[in-house]
Amino acid sequence: MSAPNSRQNQPDSAAGASHEAAAAAEPLRSGQAQSLLRIEGLHKTYAVPGGRSRRSEVLRGIEFTVEENETVGLVGASGAGKSTVGRIIAGLERPDSGAMLFRGTDIWKLRGKQRNEAMRPIQMIFQDPYESLSPWMTIEQLVAEPLVIQRVQAGNPAARREMVRQALSEVSLQPDRYMNRHPHELSGGERQRVGLARAFICQPQLIIADEPTSMLDPSLRLELLELMNRLRQRHNIAYLFITHDIALTRGFCNRMIVLDQGVIVESGPTEQVIDEPQHPFTQSLIGSLLELNRF
Length: 295
Ligand SMILES: Nc1ncnc2c1ncn2[C@@H]1O[C@H](COP(=O)(O)OP(=O)(O)OP(=O)(O)O)[C@@H](O)[C@H]1O
Hints:
It comes from Paenibacillus thalictri. With 295 residues, this protein is an alpha/beta fold.
């Protein structure tokens, strides 16, 4: 495999990358500029079904940063490990090894309450709004649920209600029209906004968005992206945007990371990576897209 190609100040890299990349991934010293998120040497294996104690290596020494207010696209073929990266950063899965620094705090070294509090500004939204919302709960209960889990404003239902109203307004859902409804009474686009409101109510600084638009038609897709962009500008939110869709990456992300079989093979400003892909895998990914566009 060719060496990872990186064109930014703080290179994204895979294990075994160049000396410059290794140096860039060293722990921060005081005075050094801090990234919002910094992932270092992330490894993850899964047990091979029926393989006795055999494990397959899904992430192999991933390193990258996300800066404040950035939109970073994480692209790659199916099975490359993109969602695994997202789930690990959001705390839904455990890494085998590596470090995650959020505003310089080494999150995976924290435990219990401290860790939950440090993780609160990191939220995730999912591909399938139908699956990610419980059908039995009202929209008010669904949006308030993260507050309940994190015991925010416990014992103060009026304050929680006001936070739900604000979160719904931020995603352009009129509170009075939506609070008492259930997910099945909403369109796919509205459900995805509810998912975004659930993330937003936690006052996130980083949202991991795992293919959030792939089940929406093109006009709803555009609306959701515009909304996400507005939230980013208004509330200084960064996104790690997981997608197969290179065209969408071009429109939405300032930077792009290409993952192939658990290794980052290329990263840089989106336009540059798309217009002048350096790594053979990126070249073939973009080549396939151009081929598809001919149909
Ligand atoms: N819980 C799990 N147990 C075992 N293997 C898993 C598990 N989750 C993911 N995998 C495997 O890890 C690899 C990476 O999966 P992942 O979902 O991260 O890829 P992806 O790049 O997001 O793919 P897609 O674009 O198709 O969603 C795949 O081979 C997948 O089968």
